[in-house]
Design brief:
Oligomer: single chain
Distance between the termini: 54 Å
Strand order of the largest sheet: 2-3-1-4-5
Helix content: 25-40%
Order of helices and strands: HHEHEEHHEEHEEEHEEH
Radius of gyration: 24 Å
Structural class: alpha+beta
């Protein structure tokens, strides 16, 4: 079957090249050169790195809504792994992946990079594919965060695997193709969601605050916002009450300090904060001179001793 798929891919490529030549002959020289450059980029990226996703069994293509959800979650995972690979901070556009082959029965879709995001190269996408494959393989076997994955990627992996069953027949098969040849394969089941979920579980809570830039508010089902941590660059989920909605919306895009109950995972990474208060901060993050703090807030400890107050805020980040 793999040889047949490779032959089909080669035939598709030859047909595309024939159509491309006809288009080039009809275009002015300058425009034709631009098309040639685009074709070279597509060939160097798409033909070298492809990911084939298979939903086994005839039901794979029988439930279109579920199939689309699985593919959407898989593409979200690739985007977050791209962020982790490029060490991006804050929201970014991701590389767009396009279909190079779709087959029914067992739904089989082959994906390849189409439009590269800023800063991404063919080398980046090859690394993303490799980290995705190795990470999914690790997630099937053991608890924790796979190498090269961050918490956002793990969260996307959980959302993907939660759509699958525990049996291999109810999972998905992900294959990594390089130049049309199969180099690696992994079967993903709901077990991966359980193992990745362990890295996201709350292991410690404390009272404290987080400083960063606020973005993306969601009011659907539960109220939450995203805060990009100023020190680590990680995204922290901010849960807030209905009474704080207007304040959160007014602070979008601003540098803020959110105080409340902080939750950390098994690796002591901050994952969320239940907001009690929010303060807008100056855009200049430089610390104020220590002399400016004298008499700043006579009720700072609210009656607690300095030692007790210090222990209470040790969770602040």
């Amino acid at each position: 079957m793999h040889e047949v798929g490779t032959q089909q891919a080669q035939r598709r490529r030859h047909r595309c090249l024939r159509r491309l030549r006809r288009v080039l002959l009809a275009l002015p020289a300058e425009a034709a050169q631009g098309v040639i450059r685009s074709a070279v980029v597509w060939q160097s990226v798409a033909m070298s790195t492809e990911l084939r996703v298979t939903l086994p069994g005839p039901e794979g293509s029988a439930d279109a809504r579920r199939s689309l959800r699985v593919l959407d979650r898989f593409l979200t995972l690739l985007g977050r792994l791209e962020d982790a690979t490029l060490h991006r901070r804050g929201p970014h556009e991701h590389t767009a992946w396009g279909f190079t082959d779709v087959r029914l029965g067992s739904l089989v879709t082959t994906l390849a990079p189409n439009r590269l995001a800023d800063g991404a190269t063919s080398v980046t996408l090859k690394e993303v594919a490799g980290v995705a494959m190795s990470g999914l393989e690790v997630a099937e076997q053991q608890e924790g965060l796979p190498p090269g994955w961050d918490l956002r990627a793990a969260d996307a992996g959980v959302e993907l695997a939660q759509l699958l069953g525990l049996l291999v027949t109810d999972g998905i098969v992900v294959e990594w193709l390089q130049d049309g040849l199969l180099t690696r394969s992994v079967t993903v089941t709901r077990k991966a969601a359980e193992n990745l979920g362990s890295a996201l579980k709350v292991r410690r809570q404390s009272i404290g605050s987080v400083i960063g830039r606020l973005d993306t508010v969601s009011l659907h089902q539960r109220r939450e916002a995203g805060l990009w941590h100023e020190r680590t660059g990680e995204r922290v989920t901010v849960f807030f009450d209905k009474d704080h909605t207007t304040q959160i919306q007014a602070a979008l895009g601003r540098r803020v300090e959110v105080a409340g109950r902080i939750a950390r995972n098994m690796d002591d990474k901050l994952i969320s904060i239940r907001m009690r208060s929010l303060e807008l901060l100056p855009e200049d993050a430089a610390a104020a001179p220590a002399t400016d703090l004298i008499g700043l807030d006579p009720d700072l400890t609210r009656g607690a001793s300095p030692g007790d107050y210090l222990r209470e805020i040790r969770g602040a980040s």
